[in-house]
Amino acid sequence: MGQLESPDVDTVMRRYDSSVRPALLRLRDMVRDVAATLPETGGLVETLKWGQPSFLPKRARVGTTIRMDAVSEDPPLIGLYVHCQTSLVATYRELYPDVMTFEGNRAVLLDASKPLPESELRHCIEMALMYHKAKRGVTE
């Protein structure tokens, strides 16, 4: 189970301002780490969607795409985006109302100048990468 990495994503990551780049790189590492623990995904595809670094399971109908981007440089905010027609952000909001900030039904907003809430983010990433499988109630 490998990762399909994208030189295009590397290029975009290098272009981010230094106020947000370290947090985005850490978030990227978290997505990769979580995907590596989920054999159901068949690995991780890394690509660009709408010019944003994006990640999706290699296997179809397992999870939904995760995107990330800088929201602003001052204050240094980053966003972790999921498809707006999923119930993921509503679930994240229920689970972690005091840990993260949310934008509608599509994003988790994070202060890039502070340590990222790693355990909570890892859980959110796992839920996204397994979204369709969990929704169908499929177990192995």
What would you say this structure looks like, in words?
The protein has 5 helices and 7 strands; from the N terminus they run E-H-H-E-E-E-E-H-E-E-H-H. It has helices spanning 7-15, 21-36, 88-95, 118-129, 131-136; strands spanning 3-4, 44-49, 52-57, 66-73, 76-82, 101-103, 107-111. The chain has a 7-stranded mixed sheet. The protein is globular, with a radius of gyration of 14 Å. The two termini are 17 Å apart.
How does the SSE layout of this entry go?
Blueprint: E1 3-4, H1 7-15, H2 21-36, E2 44-49, E3 52-57, E4 66-73, E5 76-82, H3 88-95, E6 101-103, E7 107-111, H4 118-129, H5 131-136
Parallel strand pairs: 1-2
Antiparallel strand pairs: 2-3, 3-4, 4-5, 5-7, 6-7
Helix pairs in contact: 2-4
Short description:
By secondary structure, this protein is α+β, with helices and mostly antiparallel strands. The protein has one domain: Aspartate Aminotransferase, domain 1 (Alpha-Beta Complex), CATH 3.90.1150.200.
Number of helices: 5
> What is the level 1 CATH name?
Alpha Beta
Strand content: 25-35%
What Rg, in angstroms, do the CA atoms define?
A: 14 Å
Spans of at least 5 consecutive residues whose pLDDT stays below 50 are none
Q: Order of strands across the widest beta sheet?
A: 1-2-3-4-5-7-6
Question: What attributes characterize this protein structure?
Answer:
36% helix, Aspartate Aminotransferase, domain 1, seven-stranded mixed β-sheet, alpha+beta, globular, 140 residues
